[in-house]
Structures are given as structure tokens and as C-alpha cells.
């Protein structure tokens, strides 16, 4: 009886200690995650507050989570440009078309080099990986694009990056984890390689394809340097990022700040400043990706981790 009572008392104390330890861990864990969330969200919220604040007031500083003098003048200034609407449509077309074609072609090549029976798969893989470290240079690349007839052409946004080597390796690693029996059963049923790829492999690769699609879409949406190199003379093919970049470059930082300070002392106000334009541009460029990300987020971690685990 005494032994059973002591055992019961010991288990009660150990349970109580374990519960207390769990509570302390939960408190520390939630505190850390809350701090991490604040550190992550604050720059975006601060940028949003600056973009919604009057420009003449923003240069005084002291804006943190909420605009001090609410104003939409920054957004009116950015969107008053006649080329913004067309540039936005080009960016959307570029992102959608480029993402679909790049993901499909990268997955098709990844499936090819993942097949054990393909005797050149190691050579082709190495050839692709070499391009990640060795580049022909800006001038040879421009001459190649020119000779291909892609100058002042929409497809210059698509064809040069149709195969992403990093995406290719990620998809190949994922495909190699798929059960070989599934592919063999499709072949037994008479399916060819392309039909096996489209009907069997692609549906099973949805998590990694969503991950690669997110990477590709962000890259396509944010890209502006290729517009500057190849399509800067054609306004109809300009993208949103390039137009925003031109707006920022056209604003004289020194003169704007000095003018804002002078106007603030005289009691008048200035419409925009480089600081307010930069904040507004950041929000305009980020919002579409922020809207798309939640739909792909559930595949994101799985797509990156499953391919890296050997079965």
C-alpha cells in the first residue's frame, strides 16, 4: 500500500511538472512566434502607411503603423500615367503565359532526365547545371536575342527562360520519389511516354509544380531589366515594373526633398516625394503576389521537402 501510494504521488508530481514545463514552453513558443510575426509584418505595414500618408508629411518621419495624414495622392500620381494600364496587362500576360509554359517545359525535361533508361540523363543534367555557373555575358546574350528576332517582341519575356535549371532539379528530385510501379502500370496499359507524363506524372507532381509556379510567377512579375534591354523602345510591350522604375528615376530626389522642406516651412504642401513614390511602388508591385500566394501556400512546403527525402 505504501509503495503504491508513493508511486501514485510520484506520478502525480511528474505529471504536474510535465504540465508546467509544457505551459512554459508554450508561452515561450508563442512569444517567439509573435515577435517573429511582428518583425516580418512591420516593414510591409510601415510601407503601406507611408504610401497612404501625405508626401509632405512623410518626409518628417515618425510614421510607423498608421498614416498620420491620410492621402491617396501617391497612388493617383502613379496611376495617372497613361502607360500604366497597358503595362499592367502586359505584366499579367507575361506572368501567366510565362509561368504555364516554363513549368510545363521544365517538368517535361525533368521527367526525361529522371528516367533510368535514358542513357544520356547524366550528361544532360550536368550540361544544365553548368549553365548555373557559366554565363555567356550580357553582350553575347543580347546579340543572340537580336539574331533570334526577339528584339521588340513579347516572346523575349518567355523563350530565354523557358527552362529554369533550379526548377528542373527540384521537379526531377520530386519525380524520382514517385512509385515506379505507377509508371510501369501505365506502360502496361499501353500509354506512351507523353501520355504517361501528362496523365500520370503531372497530377502526382501537383505540390512541386505549384511551388515552382510560385517561384516562376514572382520572377516574371518582378522582372524589368529584360524590358530595359530588349523592349525599352516599344511602349506597348512595357511592363508594370519597368514603368514604375521609370517613374522613380524621373523623380529628382534632391530637388524633391528640398522643395518639400521649403513648402513645409511656408505652410504649403507637395504632392509626392521619392520616398512616397518608392513606398507606393512597393505596395503596387507586391499586392498581386500576396493575393496569389495563399492559394499555393499549402503546396509550398510539401513541394520543397518531399523531393528531398529518399523513400
TrEMBL record:
Gene3D superfamilies attached to this UniProt entry: MetI-like (1.10.3720.10)
Ranges where the ABC transmembrane type-1 domain occurs: 88-296
Membrane topology: Multi-pass membrane protein
InterPro entries assigned: MetI-like, MetI-like_sf
Subcellular location: Cell membrane
Superkingdom, natural source: Bacteria
TM region(s), chain numbering: 27-45, 84-111, 123-145, 157-175, 196-218, 275-296
Keyword Transmembrane helix annotated: yes
Pfam families for the chain: BPD_transp_1 (PF00528)
Keyword field: Cell membrane, Membrane, Transmembrane, Transmembrane helix, Transport
Major localization listed first in the record, in broad terms: membrane
Keyword field contains Cell membrane: yes
PROSITE patterns: ABC_TM1
Family named by the database record: Belongs to the binding-protein-dependent transport system permease family.
Alphabetical list of PANTHER family matching this protein: ABC TRANSPORTER PERMEASE PROTEIN MG189-RELATED-RELATED, POLYGALACTURONAN_RHAMNOGALACTURONAN TRANSPORT SYSTEM PERMEASE PROTEIN YTCP
Descriptive protein name: Carbohydrate ABC transporter permease
Species annotation: Paenibacillus thailandensis
Lineage, top ranks: Bacteria, Bacillati, Bacillota, Bacilli, Bacillales
Amino acid at each position: 500500500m505504501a509503495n503504491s501510494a508513493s508511486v501514485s504521488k510520484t506520478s502525480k508530481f511528474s505529471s504536474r511538472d510535465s504540465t508546467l514545463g509544457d505551459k512554459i514552453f508554450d508561452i515561450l513558443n508563442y512569444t517567439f512566434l509573435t515577435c517573429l510575426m511582428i518583425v516580418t509584418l512591420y516593414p510591409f505595414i510601415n510601407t503601406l502607411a507611408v504610401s497612404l500618408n501625405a508626401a509632405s508629411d512623410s518626409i518628417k518621419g515618425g510614421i510607423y503603423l498608421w498614416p498620420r495624414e491620410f492621402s491617396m495622392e501617391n497612388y493617383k500620381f502613379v496611376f495617372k500615367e497613361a502607360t500604366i494600364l497597358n503595362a499592367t496587362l502586359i505584366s499579367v500576360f507575361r506572368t501567366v503565359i510565362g509561368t504555364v509554359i516554363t513549368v510545363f517545359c521544365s517538368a517535361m525535361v525533368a521527367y526525361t532526365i529522371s528516367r533510368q533508361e535514358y542513357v544520356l540523363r547524366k550528361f544532360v543534367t550536368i550540361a544544365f547545371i553548368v549553365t548555373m555557373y557559366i554565363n555567356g555575358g550580357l553582350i553575347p546574350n543580347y546579340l543572340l536575342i537580336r539574331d533570334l528576332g526577339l528584339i521588340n517582341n513579347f516572346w523575349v519575356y518567355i523563350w530565354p527562360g523557358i527552362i529554369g535549371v533550379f526548377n528542373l532539379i527540384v521537379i526531377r528530385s520530386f519525380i524520382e520519389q514517385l512509385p515506379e510501379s505507377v509508371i510501369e502500370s501505365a506502360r502496361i496499359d499501353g500509354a506512351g511516354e507523353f501520355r504517361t507524363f501528362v496523365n500520370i506524372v503531372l497530377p502526382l507532381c501537383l505540390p512541386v509544380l505549384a511551388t515552382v509556379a510560385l517561384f516562376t510567377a514572382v520572377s516574371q512579375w518582378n522582372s524589368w531589366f529584360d524590358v530595359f534591354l530588349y523592349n525599352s523602345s516599344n511602349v506597348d510591350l512595357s511592363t508594370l515594373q519597368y514603368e514604375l522604375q521609370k517613374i522613380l528615376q524621373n523623380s529628382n530626389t534632391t530637388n524633391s526633398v528640398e522643395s518639400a522642406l521649403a513648402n513645409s516651412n511656408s505652410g504649403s504642401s507637395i504632392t509626392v516625394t521619392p520616398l512616397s513614390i518608392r513606398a507606393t511602388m512597393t505596395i503596387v508591385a507586391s499586392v498581386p503576389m500576396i493575393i496569389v500566394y495563399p492559394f499555393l501556400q499549402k503546396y509550398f512546403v510539401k513541394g520543397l521537402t518531399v523531393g528531398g527525402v529518399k523513400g
